[in-house]
């Protein structure tokens, strides 16, 4: 009995001295993506209905109307392949360690049952229960009495751990709202949305199986930092065969697993906290180049998730307007890869320099710390608020990351207008300059007007471009030779781009229109010439109704290569793109011309609407069978990593027979706002030969002496030094008022406003 008691006492002593606990972790908890949510974020409660309302600056209240949630699965056991590595590591140490008796736990360590491999463990269930209760409390009124299969949607990947996570979250969420843990809703499996890297040959070839892509990880494994970790562990164990980087990482994972499942830190004793930080950095480098900002392809993979997110919110807005039931809670459960790629698409945790093998010391305070950003059960919540009214502009959006409010990139507060356009173009406005739409916060819009047609006297076509006031200083309208399109230049310094961005808004009229038949120029050819010119100075984006139907025809050079035929030095091969899956199977002459433009200018690629866009020539609002894809965004290929999302909006026949298309670009805009609370400049005084004596007399007057006495009696500390200087300055100004003559400021004349010339056809220079 004595040895047994001694063993128990020893284990308790080890756990106590390590200050470890399965709910709080160990030390700085740098376990990469094997870190529990509880080890990183406190187990706090949410006040009931804390997230239900928000007050705007004008006092108007906005109420939560939908909850979109994306989460990583809860803490889980390692996969079967990991346990194979654990067994191999144990065998290697037992057979080659001279100090094995110092670490008896290695020989006695028991593997976990195969039935548990990759499954959510108890700690993971506690995480999910905590989070379900957290959001159930915060949004109680929205869901109380409103939980049913019609209002709650669960989505997971095919993996059991995500299905279990969705069920556990829903149990706690429903128990908080209804008083009963429900299990009546089962997750819909959607790998395309939540495991978008699966079945993607381009991702496998370009990233996972590309040794060049992961060279920074291999270089860090061979660095002095990582090699010293291997040396240290080898010396502790007295190994006569050196451990490998994979052995060190397996030991690191056993440490995290035993702590989370068995509340045991024996394996952790083989690595110091500083060494675990180095191992964590190696893990972060691997994920940075395979899942984060290390490659432009990574962010493109998130398109299905963005599409589902915005479709869910638009469906809620439209059905609320009609008084119909809609999904109140859209809950999605994926993986660490899902979260990391989505973080990068949002522009979150983007360090000023990439993680590299040679900058470990400089990156210790980096933003991308996966143990801090993507632990088990890491989550992003989007809460949609209605502020009165039924239109999209009456809604706000709030984002929370790991239970904390985070400003959505591009917004200036925690609450972002759902319909927030910085730059937008209305096409086929059919208006005069006198009756074009004017909008607050969008001063000085540009309207391109066509001449009236004869004999009806009506106007057709027309473009109106609106720029938000706050970014207007960074946008310049360029000369154009026709009112069918216009170019904008977005200044790289203002927007934080590497190069200037040239945007062309275009309306290309139908080929069979009388207006087009009278033209003596080809609009696409003119734009093509401009692309050649502007691409020398920056990136290109084209947006608008091109009336071009391209079906699913190839829009890039297939199997492009510079290996066999001699080409000019700066030739750039086309990327291998996934073929578009347009629902419009027709192609017209304009479409073939557009595809030819792709090939000729093959450094530009298309970002097209994969949903149907309503083609006004062929389609009535009541008949969608002839819908066509005619509206496009085209962008320089190098610009695509800046796209946060591209979206085709729902069809609103009351407004247009086209669907709105929109995109969001990441930028680092430098907006300088005026400080309206600046102090006024002090008065100016006339100083002449008599001023010296007059000012001295004023200083010696009883009134000023009284001010000086009060100043001397007042106590100023280091924090109020500015107040002391301001009070002293007031004394001098008061003495000047008593003794000197002021210079009277003359009011400035108002600048005369120039009359704007009405230009209906021709060139406009702004």
UniProtKB/TrEMBL annotation:
Pfam families for this protein: His_Phos_2
EC number of the protein: 3.1.3.62, 3.1.3.80
Keyword entries, A-Z: Hydrolase, Membrane, Signal
GO CC, any one term: membrane
Domain of life: Eukaryota
Cellular location(s): Membrane
Cell inner membrane recorded as keyword: no
Recorded catalytic activity of this chain's protein: 1D-myo-inositol 1,2,5,6-tetrakisphosphate + H2O = 1D-myo-inositol 1,2,6-trisphosphate + phosphate; 1D-myo-inositol hexakisphosphate + H2O = 1D-myo-inositol 1,2,4,5,6-pentakisphosphate + phosphate; (2R)-2,3-bisphosphoglycerate + H2O = (2R)-2-phosphoglycerate + phosphate; 1D-myo-inositol 1,2,4,5,6-pentakisphosphate + H2O = 1D-myo-inositol 1,2,5,6-tetrakisphosphate + phosphate
Record GO terms (molecular function): acid phosphatase activity; bisphosphoglycerate 3-phosphatase activity; inositol phosphate phosphatase activity
CDD domains per record: HP_HAP_like
Region forming the signal peptide: 1-20
Name of the top EC class for this enzyme: hydrolase
Primary localization class, coarse: membrane
Keyword check for GTP-binding: no
Family of this protein: Belongs to the histidine acid phosphatase family. MINPP1 subfamily.
Name of the protein this chain belongs to: Multiple inositol polyphosphate phosphatase 1
Organism in which the protein naturally occurs: Mytilus galloprovincialis
